[in-house]
Amino acid sequence: MTAITPEIVEQHGLSSEEYERVLHALGREPNLVELGIFSVMWSEHCSYKSSRLHLKKLPTQAPWVICGPGENAGVIDIGDGQAAIFKMESHNHPSYIEPYQGAATGVGGILRDVFTMGARPIANANALRFGRRDHPKMKHLVQGVVAGIGGYGNCVGVPTVAGETNFHPAYDGNILVNAMTVGIADADRIFYSAATGVGNPIVYVGSKTGRDGIHGATMASADFGEDAEAKRPTVQVGDPFTEKLLIEACLELMATDAIVAIQDMGAAGLTSSSVEMATNGKAGIRLNMNAVPCRETGMTPYEMMLSESQERMLMVLKPGKEAMAEAIFRKWELDFAVIGEVTDTGHMVLEFNGEVVCDIPLGPLAADAPLYDRPYLSREEYKAWAGVKPLDHVPVCEDPGADLLKLMASPDLASRRWIAEQYDSQVGGDTLQTGGDAGVVRVHGTNKALAISTDCTPRYVFADPYEGGKQAIAEAFRNLCAVGARPLAVTNCLNFANPQRPEIMAQLVHALEGMGDACRALDFPIVSGNVSLYNESKATGGGSAILPTPAIGGVGIIEDISQMMTMRFKAAGDAIYLVGPEFWARPDPTRSHLGQSLWLREIKGIEGGRTPPTDLTIERNAGEIIRELIADGLVNAVHDLSDGGLAVALAEMALASGLGADVIANPEYTAAQWWFGEDQGRYLVTVPDVAALNAQMAKGTRDDETAQIGLQRVGTVGGDSLLGVPLTDLRAAHESFFKDWMEG
Q1: Alpha carbons 684 and 578: distance in angstroms, whole number
Q2: Closest alpha carbon to 639 in 435, 414, 483
Q3: Which CATH number is associated with domain 565-743?
Q4: Coil, helix or strand for 518?
Q5: Which long-range contacts (CB under 8 A, 24 or more apart) does 13-17 make?
Q6: Which residues pair with 287 in a beta bridge?
Q7: Cβ atoms of 532 and 465 closer than 8 Å
Q8: Partners of residue 336 on adjacent β-strands
């Protein structure tokens, strides 16, 4: 038997204080299997020990929420007896070490979270962050991640319909790969993870267990040192064809009454799935490790429990249903094994070769796992630490057209065609829109659709975590409204650096405060999510901490697909209006209107100024007005304003259609402020019948709050240029970044 030394404890990521808690929980010294189980269950990745105190403050309920955080995914009612099930998760560290498999298994894992609850996945989305183009490893990372996402999702047969990709030196040594899946289920056929019924059989299904991914959860809960490449064995290896078989087999069994509980084997594999099922069911669990299907010889209980081999599920079945279930999984050429039973002991007991090799009370593993109230800077202290100050002058834009050309070729705004063409966005035949403000997928066999968007502006969050958190939620809300959807709920992926540093913990706490306030104001609850900490690295020339990146996945409903809106200009002669707060008809003398803008960074080389404030009342009311304009048939194109401001939004609408525009400036603003400022709560719309719009507006608004939203005409669709730049030149610039980088 291996002696437990301080070195072994440290290798398992436990502090000396945490190891003392292990000794207290057991009343004795653990063996290696037990130490490994405590290690993964108490990792940040599984326990959320630094974040769950603050996650409890988020709004998670609404009349349409069926299941909020705590299960494999969130569930919302979308009417007609149907539910949407969705979640976003990270696979950051594995994707940096081995980009193809790291990204691919990230997609596989989030698919399992969704179909575990009884849903057929209908759409994937993602949010990706990479470092500098000239970083020696970045081209390899981008190519591998994009190929991994496409390779897995395409083979499984789930379309990738939405996503975002950003670049910043802060991600040089720690990229972010966040994957999201949305599925549809019958609202009365949702499956949960609580193991109940003493004596009920515990069943293992899917692929065999190998040695890949051992200690993946622990690796994902620490920052990178210089030895990042040595961690390659902790990265899982995925098989999308097996995943497809597993989806079909699980859904077939779910059509029967055999399943009591079901859980996918994700982070920490068989350990977390069995612990979570027993804990949620307030039960105990006994497993026979000799019965676990293994693909490698001589595997130990330690390896079996900590392996993160992919495409595996754990189920509790009703007694007597084993033969029927086995027949289904054998038909789909998948492994099936009864490996244990539910008990009433409140313990996890593992047996191997006739001996008990693990006996741990479940309370300390999960419900009573460590919970830290880590110190963090106040908002004022954080601002002083970050050194973010208002701009002391408003830089001059001498040629808006030339600046627009440069912006459209910049990494954060360049065309993502090279990425999108590697994803199958049409498989399944229900995709209605990609490449706009949100992806839209029809709910099969109906006239309604789900809209899906992923959003976050990390530079805003770094400069002001509270305002940045608000803005991330508000932008997801705007993107859904822009395609005609009613926003319903949010999932998130909270990517931050080392929470033991007060300034990093401040980013997390204050971003959550902003997110919570925005969700409450917009009736946009958070129903699922993931926390990924220790995203910082000194490996291969990387910097230290990433920018704080609380990625948001928003989901909304379009009740009638004929009401879906797109952003492309439709016809020459259509009027272009800017929709936004009335009080921004003139600039705010206390603000530059250019703080943290891409124009400031890309054109002037300045990363500075304050994050643009988000007025949540304006956001809610502007969104309502946009949806009303769409429903009334008064507009035929809508696009929200975000990165790059008004000029970039116009350019994106023009490039999507091949039509230019004749646009005018507001003389109250400088050229830089008007064309490239990133004030929030704004949309562009095109109007085919101005008289009809004026007649509607003459009726007035329903209350004082919606009266705060105004429409200002800014131009007319037509021609083949924008701001004096031919669309052919604009398109060439827009397409140049990835083409030159990947083909050069």
Answers
A1: 5
A2: 483
A3: 3.90.650.10
A4: helix
A5: 13/39, 13/43, 13/218, 13/221, 13/222, 14/38, 14/39, 14/42
A6: 340, 350
A7: no
A8: 205
Nearest to 522 by CA among 466, 460, 461, 473: 473
Q: What is the DSSP letter of 174?
A: S
CA atoms within 13 A on the CB side of 259: 27
| Single-letter code of the amino acid located at 648 | V
Single out the residue of 366, 432, 615, 488 nearest to residue 64, CA to CA.
Answer: 488
- Residue ranges per domain, the chain? 565-743
Q: Is the dihedral angle over the CA atoms 696, 700, 701, 706 positive or is it negative?
A: positive
Q: Which positions ≥6 away from 153 have C-beta within 8 Å? A: 107, 124, 159, 160, 240, 423, 424
Instruction: Please state, as a whole number, how many other Cβ atoms lie within 10 Å of the Cβ of residue 7.
Output: 8
Contact present, 716 and 390 (Cβ < 8 Å): no
Q: Cβ–Cβ contacts within 10 Å for residue 6, how many?
A: 9
Average pLDDT per 10 consecutive residues for the chain, totaling 744 residues: 88 94 96 96 93 96 97 97 98 94 95 97 98 95 98 96 97 96 98 97 96 63 50 71 96 98 91 95 97 96 94 97 98 98 97 97 93 97 94 92 98 97 95 97 97 98 98 98 98 97 97 98 98 81 80 98 98 98 83 94 95 96 97 98 98 98 96 97 98 89 72 97 98 97 87
Query: For the chain, what is the radius of gyration of the CA atoms?
Result: 26
SS3 280: helix
**DSSP label at residue 310:** S
CB 435 within 8 A of CB 419: no
Measured N-to-C along each axis, helices 502-522 and 616-631 cross at an angle, to the nearest 10 degrees, of: 40
Amino acid occupying residue 138:
M
Taken as a whole, the chain contains a residue count of 744
Give residue for tokens 């950003």: 166
d(CA 316, CA 202): 5
Rounded to whole angstroms, the maximal C-alpha distance in the chain is 84
Residue 530, both tokens:
């993931």
Distance, CA of 1 to CA of 225 (rounded, Å) = 31
Distance of CA 246 to the CA centre of its chain: 24
**Would you say 277 and 194 are in contact if contact means Cβ atoms under 8 Å apart?**
yes
Helices and strands, counts by H and E, the chain: 26, 26
- pTM, two decimals, is 0.95
Question: What is the Cα–Cα distance from 245 to 252, expressed in whole angstroms?
Answer: 11
Structure letter (DSSP) for residue 233 = G
Between the alpha carbon of residue 469 and those of residues 70, 307, 473, 507, 645, the distances in Å are 22, 35, 7, 9, 19
CA nearest 191: which of 119, 280, 124? 119
Q: Which phi and psi (to 5°) does residue 392 adopt? A: -85, -5
Distance separating alpha carbons of residues 32 and 489, to the nearest angstrom: 42
- Alpha-carbon distance of 660 to 666, in angstroms, equals 19
Instruction: Enumerate the H helices of 495-644 as residue ranges.
Output: 502-522, 598-604, 616-631
Question: What is the rounded distance in angstroms from the CA atom of residue 468 to the CA atom of residue 622?
Answer: 19
Catalytic residues: 45, 91
User: Concatenated DSSP letters for 252-277?
Assistant: HHHTTT-EEEEEE--TTHHHHHHHHH
Q: Which residues pair with 687 in a beta bridge?
A: 575
